[in-house]
Amino acid sequence: MQYGSGCIAAVIVAAGNASRMNGIDKQKAMVGGIPVLARAAMAFENCAETDRIVVVCRAGEKAEIAKLMQGWGIKKLHAVAEGGETRQASVFKGILACGEAEYYAIHDGARPLVSGKVICTCIQNAKKYKAATAGVKVKDTIKIVDSSGFIKTTPNRSELYITQTPQIFEAKLYLQAMDNALVENKDYTDDCQLVESIGHKVFMSPSDYTNIKITTPEDLKIAEALLKLD
Q1: pTM for the complete prediction?
Q2: Nearest Cα to Cα of residue 205 among 112, 110, 107
Q3: 139: Cβ contacts below 8 Å, ≥ 6 apart
Q4: What is the distance between the alpha carbons of residues 187 and 200, in angstroms, rounded to a whole number?
Q5: DSSP letters of 34-48?
Q6: Strand 77-82 and strand 52-57: pairing?
Q7: CB 15 within 8 Å of CB 58
Q8: Interval 146-190: pLDDT, tens
Q9: How far is CA 83 from CA 31, 60, 118, in A?
Q10: Between β-strands 203-206 and 131-137, what pairing exists: parallel, antiparallel or unpaired?
């Protein structure tokens, strides 16, 4: 694995089983007349600072996803990789398919409304701090609840954020964290956690509330409504 070329590689992860979508293939579902995954890729295609795109898909879908990317004009597509058994394993496979890069921009394929401004701001902060994630402040009061259902404590809302993607890391730093997780047999659901596990702080880069993740069928309707507001 090489790094230090100045290249920013976007790794778009779309290898989940969509268990909460009631049988809908959310990556291919239409939002504003464009498939969710294609719309997410377009955001990085249109970002001048990103150089290549790697899409991580489910097993057996490589040819189909490559055709989808080509059909929607994703010229920066560098590779399509099959995912692993966990999100972390899928991201790792995407990273390994990137080739030479200085930064990795890891993004959920199910976040089709990410803006170019959010991506560029996160890239700038990653270059400054080596690690940055898009995120927004929580709007509601959050409670910590015990196993019996009773409230234990109320965290200070001013310190709480919803973490989104992209999550962008210096390649050397990320590969160090990746190797450490493999050695320690740890599996993280979030790439910030992965990097935090080796003691590096991650900067919370300002995002917006429209950068939603398509998780349930209702989210498709919300995404359509948000597009109409633009």
Answers
A1: 0.94
A2: 107
A3: none
A4: 17
A5: EEHHHHHHHHHHT-T
A6: parallel
A7: yes
A8: 999 999 999 999 999 999 999 999 999 999 999 999 999 999 999
A9: 24, 10, 26
A10: parallel
Confidence at residue 114, expressed as pLDDT on a 0 to 100 scale: 98
Tens-place pLDDT, residues 100-152:
999 999 999 999 999 999 999 999 999 999 999 999 999 999 999 999 999 99
Q: Which residues 6+ apart lie within 8 Å of 134 measured at CB?
A: 114, 118, 121, 122, 163, 164, 165, 166, 167, 205, 206, 207, 211
For residue 94 the two structure tokens come to 């995407």
Q: Tens digits of per-residue pLDDT, 28-75?
A: 899 999 999 999 999 999 999 999 999 999 999 999 999 999 999 999
Neighbour tally for 218: CB within 10 Å: 9
What percent of the chain has pLDDT above 90?
Answer: 90
Q: Would you give the distance in Å from CA 136 to the centre of its chain?
A: 15
> DSSP secondary-structure letter at 157?
G
Closest CA to 18 of 4, 6, 28: 28
Is the alpha carbon torsion for 153, 157, 160, 162 positive or negative? positive
At residue 4 the predicted structure's pLDDT band, cuts being 50, 70 and 90, is: low
SS3 state of residue 75: coil
Dihedral sign of CA atoms 52, 58, 59, 62 in order: negative
